[in-house]
Amino acid sequence: MISFSSADTESALDSLAKRITSNSYIVFFTGAGVSAESGVPTFRSIDGLWEKFKPEELANFKSFIKNPALVQAWYRHRAEIVNNVKPNRGHTAMADMESKVATCVVITQNVDNLHQRAGSREVIELHGNILRNYCIDCGVQFEGDLLIENGETTLCKCGGLVRPDVVWFGEMLPANSFRIAEKHARKCDLFISVGTSGVVFPAAGLPTLAKSSGAFLVEVNTEATDLSSLMDVTFQGKSGEILPKLMSLLKS
Ligand code: OAD
Ligand code: ZN
Q1: Structural domains in the chain?
Q2: What single-letter DSSP state applies at residue 137?
Q3: Does the pLDDT at position 28 exceed 70?
Q4: The pTM is what?
Q5: Cis peptide before 202 (omega within 30 of 0)
Q6: Could you tell me if the CB of 222 is within 6 A of ligand 1?
Q7: Is 237's C-beta closer than 6 angstroms to any atom of ligand 1?
Q8: Mapping DSSP to helix (H, G, I), strand (E, B) and coil, where does residue 128 land?
């Protein structure tokens, strides 16, 4: 692994830019850090969401059945946060990459919809999307905000409980999305991990898969992570600063 201080970040970015050609097949593998600059709290930071709320109380099916109104309210609060923020320059840089290379895919662990709002068209959501909800009994989908009045539980017309379309603790990832993510990890030539701590599996296994399939691995993160030792190059910094710099170095 090569780590760069800010002094030589420019030249490291330059050599990364030289690797990227119109034939490149790029995967961005993203986590909560890419949305931090938009104002969405990350999971494991000091002021992260789960410092204040115990995940085991909120993000699992048993708790939802026990106290659906509480879990719905928490997700509604989180949906409000993401609806009130904007994609940042990191999201936009990743969206802009699509027009520069043959294949560019975003595999995200985020549920905040910000990649799509930034204009990325190829987004694989490994952990679902907080803006979608569905009935656990009949499966009908609800788009948009869940309306919860006076702490009441939101029910479907059929009487079933309505839950967010996100992956909870103990639940499987959407099989099709993960299968497609694995395919891209195997086929890409550049795998860029951005703003993820890389500790939640099976998603965190994708960088290893990409590496063993021959991809060049790059990390963009404000800190060293569990994935750093796997990387060919690590950029320590904010995704909203590093990625636009990389884009500016690509030939138009
Ligand atoms: P984490 O909160 O674990 O990690 C966020 C990472 O972003 C950390 O490594 C930070 O150093 C980094 N970071 C913070 N600000 C940044 C910035 N401006 N630019 C670049 N990096 C920055 O979030 P995830 O890795 O996404 O799963 O967490 C993975 C999964 O854990 C989530 O999808 C969620 C949670 O359990 C589910 O809900 C299923
Ligand atoms: Zn229903």
Answers
A1: 1-39+87-127+173-252 (3.40.50.1220), 41-84+129-166 (3.30.1600.10)
A2: T
A3: yes
A4: 0.94
A5: yes
A6: yes
A7: no
A8: strand
